[in-house]
Amino acid sequence: MPHNELYVRYARLADAPAILDITTEYARQGIMLERSGDNIVENIRNFFVAEYNGEVIGCCAIAFYTLKLAEIRSLAVFNRYKMKGIGRLLVEKAESVLREEGVSEVFVLTLNSDFFKRVGYHEIQKEYFPQKIWRDCTHCPKLMACDEIAMMKKLSQTVNH
Ligand SMILES: CC(C)(COP(=O)(O)OP(=O)(O)OC[C@H]1O[C@@H](n2cnc3c(N)ncnc32)[C@H](O)[C@@H]1OP(=O)(O)O)[C@@H](O)C(=O)NCCC(=O)NCCS
User: Fold this and answer.
1) Is 7-154 assigned to CATH 3.40.50.2020?
2) How far, CA to CA in Å, does 151 sit from each of 28, 56, 83, 87?
3) Per-residue pLDDT tens for 51-61?
4) Domain boundaries, the chain
5) What is the dihedral of CA 86, 141, 136, 97, to 10 degrees?
6) How many A from CA of 146 to the centre of ligand 1?
């Protein structure tokens, strides 16, 4: 891969500090859920990163809930690289992996519904996915005043010949 090309790949363990940098910036602004360095390391196999000129500039993660349902989470792109199509590339990579796994519905909890609308998601009631509430939301300081918007997309399955 040429050095100056932008690409999205599975994260490696060594990417964990960069992922922490990118997500912490937005967690401090209250835009996304904070993840500790340990949590990122434990979940590194679920992360993808966007790399440009040898630098990790964006990330996202997937979380499986059932055989058919998954979440895209921890999506973030460094401020200076926003609005260049990198968020879309990360979501597309995550979706293609989920599709390969046979997942048919993917959801997000986000404050940025405009971005997710652009990449094909539509708003749903949070109660549509109760598993999410029990896994993460019970630990969230915003539990009783959640301002995140739940959105989902149905993934079309590719036909294997
Ligand atoms: C959300 C985020 C990852 C988007 O990444 P990005 O690289 O800037 O997005 P892209 O350039 O791929 O944008 C894809 C499309 O969404 C649109 N878009 C992106 N951010 C937008 C915003 N805040 N408002 C409206 N539209 C937006 C783009 O204009 C583009 O539209 P197009 O299809 O007409 O070209 C980035 O803004 C970010 O890191 N935000 C902070 C963390 C966050 O909110 N994460 C998501 C919730 S977990």
Assistant:
1) no
2) 23, 27, 20, 16
3) 999 999 999 99
4) 7-154
5) 0
6) 21
